[in-house]
Amino acid sequence: MTDLAARFQRFARDECHGSSPLYERLALGIASDRELLALARIGASNTRQVPVPNLFLAAVHYLLLLDPTAALGRFYPDLAGVRWSSGDPFPVFHAFCRTRHTQIRRLLRTRLVQTNEVRRSACLLPAFALVANQGGAASLGLIEIGASAGLNLLWDRYGYRYDGRRLGDEAATVQLACTVRGCPPPLPAHLPVVSFRVGIDLQPVDVRSRASARWLLALVWPEHRDRACLLRSAIEVARAHPPPLVRGNAVDVLEEQLSLIPRGARACVFHSFTFNQLTLESKARIDALLIAQSRRRALTRISLEYSKGPSPRELSPQLRLIRYLGDRLEGRLLARCDPHGGWIKWASQPS
Fold this sequence. Notes:
By secondary structure, the chain is an alpha/beta fold. Helix content is 38%, strand content 21%.
């Protein structure tokens, strides 16, 4: 079995099972098909850890959003609705990829996996509140690495519900519900003030472009219609209040953006489901840069990323807070979270 075939199998087993039966079946089928693996391999990169299964399936989804009447569309719940077919989608998927291979190849070469999962803001909010309370800063200065369209940079424009507790703007068009498991997170009385915000991305997504907005929707799995609905609402917020976005590699542009944060603001770098696409060298360089910068001002990084769980097969998204202290860094596990922000379980003890 090739490495790419194994990646599709892991994607089906660890990420799709219990969440997307369609993608689970398609990923397992692709893993056993040399022709489709060769097509999917076009999206791989020698310089980045590209999540090829996500990219390949999103490329097909994008083309279906352009042509929802295609035969394959009847297997996609977000396109077929009540006409959704529960039969085996793989033969039709294979035929679709054969006839659209030129368009798929173009998307694999030009697009990135830039999922903007808006509900993750509900997991990030308690961490932002903790950072805001450190050192008595009047406001937050936020830099997001891997910002995509910057929808999570606009988290303070959304409304939140943690079981019975409400925060934010109750009249906002984007309302995020997050279930609390076990120990509740330390929620603030009011949302922290943000005085500076910017997103860094290799290829920022401008949601004013219909094609770019469609790509974001294509990255949402077909069964997750509530996620797509939230995304559409957040796109409208971003069109009305465009977040500042900078094109570039974080290693190259992060230092300059940090220098722009007002001195009275608490500097905070954050990222969600982005570092899995960075090389170990890039991660180390970012840490080294932040350590050096922390000799000039207090710096905190918030990380919401996958990490290995108790068993080798289990992937567990963790919310972590990392403080940079001049010559070293200190990390603390804050919570375990649902990959799409549906629930949060706060850590009862720092670790």
